[in-house]
Amino acid sequence: HRLVAIITLAMKIPFQKAQHPFTLIIFGASGSLARLKIYPALYQLFLEKRITVSCNVGGYGRKQITTAQFQREIAEAVEKKYRDTTDKKILNQLLKIVSYQAGSYDRTEDYDALKSHLMKVEKPGQRRVRMAYFSVPPSVFEPIIRNLGELTIRNAACPLRLIIEKPFGYDEASAHALEKLLRHYFDEENFFLLDHYLGKEAVFNILSLRYAN
Q1: The sheet that has 160-165: what strands, in order across it?
Q2: Alpha carbon separation from 13 to 9, 16, 46, 139 (Å, rounded)
Q3: Of 37, 55, 131, nearest to 99 (Cα)?
Q4: Which pairs with CB-CB distance under 8 Å and at least 24 residues apart come from 85-90?
Q5: pLDDT tens-digit profile of 123-180?
Q6: Listed residue (13, 121, 11) closest to 70, CA to CA
């Protein structure tokens, strides 16, 4: 009975929708994690009307490709995930808000180019949140954090938030060093450590396991 009550309650919780425009900057945009998880998830959010064309998705990576090539990679990732059920109209709407900027993770001038790129693709004068998604290995966390912290990519109209995939460092010492670097440049409420293992099937089934045993 408890499990039924929990499921019933969960079904009554409404979907959260983006209430304001935002720009999602995906570092490591050409990597396997982005193709397997992030792009299909963005398509699903678009399908559910939880994000709209007022938002932007910017890929950033070392791979020298064009925006058109990046859009094709996203389309291939979505179609591989959803196969015959892919809604082509929705997918095309998503691709219209997608762009790509090539660059290294440690060169300051490449972040200046990223800033200029964002100003071109975003609607001028519009208040929005910028979010930097770290779909990269821990070895490049430090230069990305430092460059984003020193670059004037954030202001009162465009606050910047960091979403960082675990593993966070390699051991306790490196994790503390990264946390110290984060706090040097960003307030705590503006960075989020994401453990994608919380999305694993075993974790989703924890309630049924609990009440079946």
Answers
A1: 98-102, 56-61, 22-27, 129-134, 160-165, 191-194
A2: 7, 9, 19, 39
A3: 55
A4: 86/43, 87/47, 90/43, 90/46, 90/47
A5: 887 888 899 999 998 889 999 999 999 887 777 778 899 999 877 888 889 889 999 9
A6: 121
State both tokens at 125.
């004068």
- For residues 58 and 24, the answer to whether their CB atoms sit within 8 Å is yes
Q: Where are the alpha helices (DSSP H) in 83-157?
A: 88-96, 108-121, 141-150
**In angstroms, rounded to a whole number, what is the distance separating the alpha carbons of residues 181 and 176?**
9
Give the global pTM.
0.83
Measure Cα distances from 102 to 35, 51, 78, 128 in Å: 17, 25, 22, 23
Q: Which residues share a beta bridge with 132? A: 25, 162
Bridge partner residues of 193 (DSSP): 164
Q: Is the pLDDT of residue 55 over 60?
A: yes
The two tokens of residue 102 are 């090539």
> Which amino acid type is present at position 39?
Y
Distances (CA, A) of 90 to 47, 55, 93, 180: 6, 14, 5, 41
Average pLDDT over residues 8-34: 76
Residue with tokens 């890929």: 59
Q: Given a cut of 50, is residue 10 above it in pLDDT?
A: no
- Axis crossing angle, helix 172-185 with helix 141-150, rounded to the nearest 10: 10
